[in-house]
Design a protein that fits this description.
23% strand, four-stranded antiparallel β-sheet, 11 strands, 2 domains, alpha+beta, Jelly Rolls, 9 helices, Arc Repressor Mutant, subunit A
Length: 229
């Protein structure tokens, strides 16, 4: 477990908790590490979920399929990211999404009950964990609202501009990489891949962005923001 301490330290759930407390805290939480092979499912939509997961290595994809079998990507998560925290806080704890390893991945699984209930020793850092959980849920709600707004945008350029501006903000730079390839990005935006790629080329020709693979550079932030007006 100690080899993953630098990753755990970056996880929002453990924000503000000293690394020297991890061994005791993780033991108190009964945290376990589980390995998943490439394309292996971590859980399916409809499964009852009682544990939250922290990605320690590798990448996981969260997606949802409609009745026709079409997949919509909700998120791509890499190391230090938390998932299932919103599911375990519901009354029935039934997952509305499927989570799958995109490559060989190690996940730390923590029982939900161990997070929300302070141990008998009343560890001060356990109280911090509970507070962090509340902040994580609030931030998750904000991200879901953004995703809802993104999907309600009608224009292809509007959706791309919104996504790229948010990615730039999160990376604190006009030059950044996104975790999605073109097919995954079209699934995430719920648009045609061909039309999306065509629009990205137009945006490059218009001097708004430059791009290569998953790398992007915003050349005209004001012009890109103007696409959302």
């Amino acid at each position: 477990m100690e080899q993953y301490y630098p990753i755990i330290k970056r996880c929002a759930l453990f924000r503000g908790i000293e690394e020297s407390n991890y061994k005791h805290l993780l033991g108190c939480l009964e945290a376990q590490i589980k390995h998943f092979d490439e394309d292996e499912y971590i859980f399916f939509a409809g499964d009852k979920i009682n544990r939250v997961g922290v990605v320690l290595s590798g990448t996981v994809e969260i997606h949802k399929e409609n009745l026709a079998g079409n997949k919509h990507i909700i998120a791509i998560l890499d190391s230090s990211h938390l998932f299932a925290e919103g599911i375990v806080c519901t009354a029935n704890r039934l997952s509305p999404v499927t989570v799958q390893a995109k490559e060989a991945t190690d996940i730390m699984l923590i029982p939900y009950e161990k997070i929300i209930r302070s141990c008998g020793k009343s560890c001060s850092y356990h109280f911090g964990l509970i507070q962090n959980m509340m902040v994580v849920l609030g931030e998750k709600n904000i991200n879901l609202n953004w995703k809802l707004e993104l999907l309600t945008l009608k224009g292809m350029r509007e959706k791309l501009a919104s996504y790229l501006i948010k990615a730039s903000y999160e990376n604190r730079s006009n030059t950044f990489q996104i975790p999605l390839n073109r097919s995954e990005l079209s699934d995430f935006l719920n648009v045609s891949r061909t039309s999306m790629c065509r629009e990205l080329t137009r945006m490059k020709d218009d001097g708004l962005i430059d791009l290569y693979g998953r790398s992007f550079k915003i050349l005209d932030r004001e012009g890109l923001a103007g696409c959302l007006e």
